[in-house]
Amino acid sequence: MMPEYDARLSRAGLVHLRRAQPDDRPALRDLHARLSPAAIYLRYFTAAPNLDRELDRLLRPVDDDHETLVALVDDVIVGVACYERVDPYVAEVAFLVDDSHRGVGLATLLLSVLTSSARRHGVHELHAETLHGNAAMLSVFRDCGLQCITSASREVVHVRIPLSGPPINEAWPATVVDVLRPPLVPVQQ
């Protein structure tokens, strides 16, 4: 079982991270309902994603090929992130953060925990695709503390992050380390 974490983000307060659970479906629907049309488009590359299919994918049982995390502030889900294995050593990652909690280090925090989980399950490299206009997500990848290799097609930036470098939470740049007070600590059960 993956541990749960509490972290203090200077501009978001206390954030609780845990594995997504089947009964999170209504809260994840609420998260999507709060998003701006621009945020939906940046995440799904369309204005009208199939939300039921997406929630089924996010909330299916966890295994070595799939992990979904949620971030809660005041018991409200404000972010979700997942990885999906696409070949034996590569997993694709994706993030969605509430409009009101963007730019506070939440996606970076989620990436750190996902990276640790992916490494434990034998993933050697993370992949992502994002639109050229999604500067915030590109910044998360660029500033994650690991090598970030990008290539671009017409509208999409393809991101590769080899996981052979140091653990992400030990390599964060100073700007991110300053956001986390105190560092991630497992919640006592």
Mean pLDDT: 85
Q: Report the principal-axis shape.
A: globular
Strand segment count: 9
Strand ordering within the main sheet: 7-8-6-5-4-3-2-1-9
The structural domain count equals 1
Name of the CATH class: Alpha Beta
- Flag low-confidence runs: 169-185
What is the string of SSEs from the N terminus onward? EEHHHEEEHEHEEHHE
Instruction: Give the distance, in angstroms, between the N- and C-terminal Cα atoms.
Output: 12 Å
How much helical structure, as a percent, in the residues? Answer: 25-40%
Overall CATH architecture: 3-Layer(aba) Sandwich
Strand content is 25-35%
User: Which class do the helix and strand fractions yield?
Assistant: alpha+beta
Rounded to an integer in angstroms, the radius of gyration calculated over CA atoms is: 15 Å
SSE layout and pairings?
Elements: E1 5-9, E2 13-19, H1 25-34, H2 37-44, H3 51-59, E3 66-73, E4 76-87, E5 90-97, H4 106-120, E6 125-131, H5 135-142, E7 149-152, E8 156-162, H6 168-171, H7 174-177, E9 185-186
What does this structure look like?
The protein has 189 residues and is an alpha+beta fold. The chain has one domain: Aminopeptidase, CATH 3.40.630. It has helices at 25-34, 37-44, 51-59, 106-120, 135-142, 168-171, 174-177, and strands at residues 5-9, 13-19, 66-73, 76-87, 90-97, 125-131, 149-152, 156-162, 185-186. The protein is globular and about 35 Å long.
